[in-house]
């Protein structure tokens, strides 16, 4: 939800019946990262070609930290 170009809030959901402790991190963090990219990027000025390198770099950081 946007108000004068500022984010009021956002939410990423993860259904507990679709995941367990073994798969939670590998589902939660990538989805949260993609949502954050969408919420904090200006859709009128930003294109996906600019988002892809940021998401790839973030994925590499998560892998280095042990998040599959």
UniProtKB/TrEMBL annotation:
GO terms for molecular function: beta-N-acetylglucosaminidase activity. It comes from Allacma fusca. Residues 5-42 form the Glycoside hydrolase family 20 catalytic domain. GO terms for cellular component: plasma membrane. The keyword Nucleus does not apply. It comes from the Eukaryota. It holds the Pfam family Glyco_hydro_20. Transmembrane segments: none annotated. InterPro entries: Beta_hexosaminidase_sua/sub, Glyco_hydro_20_cat. The keyword Endoplasmic reticulum does not apply. GO terms for biological process: carbohydrate metabolic process; glycosaminoglycan metabolic process. Keywords: Hydrolase, Signal. This is Glycoside hydrolase family 20 catalytic domain-containing protein.
């Amino acid at each position: 939800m946007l108000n004068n170009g500022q984010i009021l809030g956002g939410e990423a959901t993860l259904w507990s019946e679709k995941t367990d402790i073994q798969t939670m991190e590998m589902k939660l963090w990538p989805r949260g990262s993609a949502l954050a990219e969408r919420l904090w990027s200006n859709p009128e000025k930003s294109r996906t070609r600019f988002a892809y390198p940021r998401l790839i770099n973030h994925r590499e950081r998560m892998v280095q930290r042990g998040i599959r």
